[in-house]
Each structure stands twice: as C-alpha cells, then as structure tokens.
Amino acid sequence: LVESELFGYQGGAFTGARREGMVGKFEFAHKGTLFLDEINGLPLELQAKLLRVLQQNEIMRLGDTRCIPVDVRVIAASSTDLLTEVETSSFREDLYYRLNVVEIVIPPLRERIEDLELLIDHILTRQCQEMGIKRPQISDEVFETMRAYHWPGNVRELENCIERMLLVSQGTTISAIHLPLRPQKKEARLENGVLTFHQGYKGMIEEALEQCGGNVSMAAKKLNIARSTFYRKMKEFGLSP
C-alpha cells in the first residue's frame, strides 16, 4: 500500500502487516528531504492525506490514533502537466499550489539533444560499474543514430537502450547492430561508404551481405560484430547468404 509506505503503520493494522509495525518514508526523512516521483499517479484519497501532512507537518500511521510531528522538505516530480491534471479534476488544486513553490521544468530529451552524449557517458559508466564489466567503446555510427532518434521514452528509454546494448554486445565495441531503437525511416542505405542505421537490424544485415557478395565473415566484419552474432541475427530474420 502506498499509504503505509509513506506514513507507516502499527502492528496488526491490516492483513500481512508486520507485528512490530513499520516506519513510513516521512518519518525516515525527518529533518531531511523526501522525493516523491510520479506524483500525478497518486490517488485522490491519498492526495488529501498528503495535503494534510504538508499543511500540519505531522503524520498518523495506519492503525494508530497518535499524530507524529515531522519536518520534511518534499520534492515532487510528475511525468504529466499537473495544471492540466487539475483542470480535469485528476489532481487536487490545493495540493498543486502547496507543492508548486519552486517549479523546475525539464524538457523532454528530444528537445535537449545536446545533453545526449553527457547522459550516455554518465549512464554507461554507472551501468558498467553495476555489471562489473569493462566499459566498451561506442561507434560514431551509434552516436549518429541516437542523436537522430526522437526518444519518446526520454531518459528512461535511454537507460534501457544502453543496458540492452551492453548485454547484447557482450563487452565488445557497441555498433549499430546492437541498437534496440525502433525504426524511424523505411530504408537502411550507404552514405559516403558508411553503413548507417535507419530501418533496423534486418536492413543493415541485408545490405552488408549484398555489398560483401554474400560473404558472412566480411559482412560481420563490416558491421563490427562477431560472426556467430551475425549468423544468429540472420536466422532470426529468416535471411540466407
């Protein structure tokens, strides 16, 4: 329950509750800061309880009758325009103005593409550390494709994309064949002798095979991927040399 996570509960407050009860996030954050992500998804009933906490600086655990003072700075994030949510009665107007003391608007990734390489560098370093692997190189072709992509899922999609590339590339140089992005154009083609990724894996493999006269080893080398990976992709797409 979101309510029990935020405000805690007394032992036996509901089925499955711990006998000793649980301290909620607001109590944990006393004299500190609490970040509430996706605040737009909070049910209206909980919005009212959150408003009470912000106004009175106290919480009441589930199953308890005592109020516990808390001093917490709240930072809230939303993936939608909260003012629009207010207009459609999906978000309480009083809570909106209580939260909206200082507003920071972060544009979608497609509108700040100049940040892309910095974000890739940060995410790649972090994920390699978490996986315990050596950081691979990323080809210029991959950067070119990622800069041209519209990123409908914003930074979360970028994180997912990088994680998948790390898993698929298995520590080798990350090339276009490892990109999981959805296609934005219908054709993959050669520009100035360099294979660019537009349609997806299948188009790239077909063109590499055509340019190399059906020689799988040469085509795999051209795409900078292992021959075994190239064969696996050919089988996946129903292709033959």
Automatic annotation (TrEMBL):
Pfam families: AAA_lid_14 (PF25601), HTH_8 (PF02954), Sigma54_activat (PF00158). PROSITE patterns: SIGMA54_INTERACT_2 (PS00676), SIGMA54_INTERACT_3 (PS00688), SIGMA54_INTERACT_4 (PS50045). Keywords: ATP-binding, DNA-binding, Nucleotide-binding, Transcription, Transcription regulation. Gene3D superfamilies: 1.10.8.60, Homeodomain-like (1.10.10.60), P-loop containing nucleotide triphosphate hydrolases (3.40.50.300). CDD domains: AAA. Transmembrane segments: none annotated. InterPro entries: AAA_lid_NorR, Homeodomain-like_sf, HTH_Fis, P-loop_NTPase, Sigma_54_int, Sigma_54_int_dom_ATP-bd_2, Sigma_54_int_dom_CS. This is Sigma-54 factor interaction domain-containing protein. It comes from marine sediment metagenome. GO terms for molecular function: ATP binding; sequence-specific DNA binding. GO terms for biological process: regulation of DNA-templated transcription. The keyword Iron-sulfur does not apply. Residues 1-167 form the Sigma-54 factor interaction domain. The keyword Cell membrane does not apply.
